[in-house]
Amino acid sequence: MGFEPIQPANGPAARDAEEFACKMQKIVEYVRAEILVAQVRHEEQANKKRRPARRFRVDQRVWLDARNIKTLRPKKKLDWKQLGPFRIKKMISPHAYELDLPASMRIHPVFNVSLLRPVAEDPLPGQRQDPPPPVEVDGLEEWHVEEILDSRWERRGRGGPRLKYTVKWVGYDEPTEEPAAYLVHASELTKNFHRRYPNKPGPDLDGARS
Question: What residue stretches are annotated with the Chromo domain (predicted)?
């Protein structure tokens, strides 16, 4: 039987093992570097697609997206799209702002920046303004009505005619036409209108058409 002597630590086998380990380490480092490069490129591409959060300043006036705020409108598609304008009271974070809301709204005043839109400093002449913010009336949201300007009967297909009023809102130039059912909390104004214009369409004491 032959005898194989033990190879010294610096022999050929040891050098081969060391070279192999070195190559493996370089491969691992190369793969790690490629992964980092890929991650950086991915983040750069993602950042290009992301829009930076809009910045507002304290006291700046903004419109508030009304998608999450319930009003008296019977159908969401007929509801106001935005409310305000309101003053920025405080920046909570780059993504959230506190608005100076009227106490009557009774909702939390902090909103995500995505729900805010700046008010044009110099709006175009005749530019349409949105209706004013809601106020609380007996626990329900209602709108500030300044004056009733006109009334008419709206003819509908199968249903009976519907009474509608042309309404002037407090602080806004352009009137809107609203069903009488939306103005139940402005009864004094509707009464005043019919006193001034007794021949205009409106409900009589029995609730029938005049």
Answer: 143-205
10 vs 210, higher pLDDT: 10
Please give the Cα distance from 90 to 20 (Å, whole number): 62
List the structure tokens of 75: 């159908």
Q: Whole-model pTM? A: 0.39
Gap between the Cα atoms of 202 and 28, Å rounded: 85
Q: Name the amino acid, one letter, at 194.
A: H
d(CA 175, CA 173): 6
| Measured CA distances, 110 to 31, 88, 92, 99, 116 (Å) | 46, 10, 8, 6, 11
**Percent of the chain predicted with pLDDT > 90:** 13
Tokens of residue 104, six digits:
């009557």
List the Cα angle 146/150/152 in 5-degree steps. Answer: 135
* 87 within 8 A of 99, measured Cβ to Cβ: yes
**CB–CB of 61/87 below 8 Å?**
yes
Over the stretch 137-192, which tens digit does the pLDDT of each residue have? 344 445 567 889 999 998 877 777 889 999 887 666 778 888 887 776 678 889 99
